[in-house]
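Feature request, filed as a ticket because there's no other form

It would be nice if the structure record came with a short human-readable summary line next to the tokens. Right now we just get the raw output. Example of a typical job, pasted below so the devs can see what we mean:
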Amino acid sequence: MTQTGEDMGSAQGAAVSEAATQGVTTAAQYLVVGCNVTRVVTVDGKAVGRTDEVLELPAGGHTVSLLAPPANFRPKARRVTLDGTSREKPLVVRFETR
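Raw output as currently delivered:
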């Protein structure tokens, strides 16, 4: 028997159903940060992985940057909004060294 968010009878099911009716994406989103060198990627100030890896993050706006050395990356940080991505089609952003 397949259950929907409405007939699960849980607060989580109700929240998922409510989010779906309001057009809110609750599924995980995906990001790939490319660079010509391998570095640690930070999202909202927290280390989450390395460049060229598929990173799984919550939907919404995030600030993405790289840990140094060297500290000569362009741009220093990028603001991204994750919505409608998948593991197969992540959002791709690039950083370059000077």
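Something like this underneath would help us a lot:
Residues 25-97 form a domain with the Immunoglobulin-like fold (CATH 2.60.40).
Strands lie at 29-35, 40-43, 46-50, 54-57, 60-66, 73-74, 77-82, 91-97.
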